[in-house]
Amino acid sequence: MAARFSVRSAALHLVLIALAAVASLTMLMGRLIGPRPAWTMALVIGLIALLIVLKYEPFTQAFASTLRIWQGQSAAEASAFDVRWLGFSYIFFRLVSALRDRAAGKLPGMSLREFVTYVVFAPALIAGPIDRPDRFLKDLRSTFRFNLADATEGARRIAIGAFKKFVVADLIAVFALNEVNAEQAHGAPWVWLLVYAYAFRLYFDFSGYTDIAIGVARVFGIRLPENFNRPYLKPNLTQFWNSWHMSLAHWFRAYYFNPLTRALRTRAWAMPAIIFVSQATTMLLIGLWHGITWNFAIWGLWHGLGLFVHNRWADFAKARLAISPERPRLQQAVNVVGVLVTFHFVVLGWVWFALPDVALSLEVFEKLFGL
Amino acid sequence: MNANINFYIRASLKALALFIAFNVVLVFVDPMPVIARLSVYNWLVPGRERLPHARQPSREYGVTTSNLDVMFNTHVIHGRVKTADEYRVVVLGDSAAWGWKLRPAETMVGAMNAQNLITPDGRKVRVYNLGYPIASAMRDLLLLDYAMRYRPDMIIWMVTFETLNDKTRFDHPLVRDNGTQVRSLNERYSLEADPALWELGYRDRTLFGLRRKIMADAFRLQLYGLPWAATGIDHDYFSPYDRVSRDLKEGDLFYDIPPKTLNEDEMTWDVVAAMHQLAGERPLLIVNEPILIADGKNSDVRYNNVYPRWIFDQYRALMLSKSAQEGWNYLDLWDLIPPDQFTDNEFHMTPNANRILARSIEAWMIEQWAKPEAAMKSP
Questions:
Q1: Tell me: the pLDDT tens digits for A132-178?
Q2: If you ran DSSP here, which 8-state letter would residue A167 be given?
Q3: pTM above 0.90, yes or no
Q4: Whole-number Å distance between alpha carbons of B116 and B125
Q5: Is residue B168 one of the residues assigned to a domain?
Q6: Which residues of chain B have a CB within 8 Å of the CB of A187?
Q7: ipTM confidence score
């Protein structure tokens, strides 16, 4: 009888050793090569390659199979979860931040211990928020003394987060859109309900987790950045992305969008083209960071296009449709319409995000609009 | 900052005091009848076609609960006010009647409703599925007792030997978890009482005990009403299953019982009599439900892996003589369905078999209506 291997979580010490090894290696490489752009770029490309391996299912599977064979186990036992437990998604951002800041001469000097703590800081390891190295170091270096105010505030955030995650989100999850009920559901009103439920489930789940992460860090005297600011109440898509997964949006703005926009400006492109390319590719990358699939790519482009359209509309409306401050009710009405339109644009975008393939997403759109 | 901390301390103490007070109230007051009334079914979402039962809630969009108020408030029968032109039929029975591995429309009840039968006096026949998995006569009496408030005109009771075997009288979660109601039935109909029948103790009545689960299940069942409404799915009928074997196990044991004479005192005749008393003047039809009559290995000794021939033949003979003696309406359909029409066990049948079964019962109903003494009465 062939030997069978159970799929089990990796031991915590192995996870920490692996993560610390990646961080230490990056630190040492950074020390050795100094702030030279070519080397920095090579390292960043290496990290992106590793991210692709972990985000693209066939590559992840092949990597997992290789590891299994290397360990003398059957490749048939390999699963993407063999390597995904590493939690590399957010580590990637912190490592790239450090490398880019180092190349730009903005990274403050830090010890190996400080660097590893920054990269694998436990409360924010799994799902952020993504802190900047200089800001994190400031808190880390301040002498830790138990502070009742911080502990109380931390406990409050943990309690709120736990309520959002384990009560609200988990209850809504019962009827939130997923790949099973997407196929089973019929009747446009009910399908809308599933999609709305998914939108709120995702918000309460993710923001609840963030509250817990921020609360735990606060107890230890570290103030992690906020990640959400009432995103579904924003009157346009630009404001939505300034209030949804804020640390991710900030990261992409700082390390991709702004440098790309500056580079394109030197090429004398028309402004709308620069804006389109910058926004579309930024959002495409954000989409692909969640997983290299057609659905995440479409979700990213959906938002990229939405941001571009809003940008152009805002430009157009600013000159022609400005509302006088003397008409606050009209302004209020416009805001309400803006909130509703933005919310529904985001909600419909979640259809791509929530489902595993394009055909099923299109089927849901057909059901939503009774086609 | 101190003011803030004091606020949290005061808030926590008040919350604790309220929590304790709430639990004390729960010891003395059963909130379930009120909670069950807050059902989303039959107004926000459609009522369920059968009583809720789910092994995998997230796949079957339901929860198994033993609280009768909660169960019935989710059912479509609870939401339909009986009108003068409705002839209301309720069907009781085990998982075969409930419709294991079948959509509601594919069950016997679904097949009967699809016929749109009309009684001779012009009333539309509407059949309600009150079946529930695992056979037990006492469970069926409990369900019928509750269902009488919905004023049925006729009761169809699907039974098999397992239903009427005295060993299963109390061996059902609904019977065990509804001690108060079962005690009441025992007293009303002078039934055999189970000394081990328990009721919720002090601790179980608080949120630290069983009541937390009962309340949580009631709440979860409301939540699952939404995916149930969106999908119409109330059971996992899409997963593949192994077909019941037509080659039978060795020997002729019924569980661990070797062949012997089946005595009358091994049957729950008192429960059958109580069912008739409860039904009053409404016709109560007892149907000996179809079983798999296997044709493979050892089928000369056994009908299937549950029933050896010796016990089932004696049971049928007892049922025939007892029903003739007591004047019960009894239909013995045990061999109605060919073996290839059984699905995952000896009782569960295909949609086609359920249609055949429905036609046989409808034929009996029509025959009864045609009898001059069967004047149609609406209770």
A1: 888 888 888 887 777 788 888 899 999 999 999 999 999 999 999 99
A2: I
A3: no
A4: 7
A5: yes
A6: 230
A7: 0.78
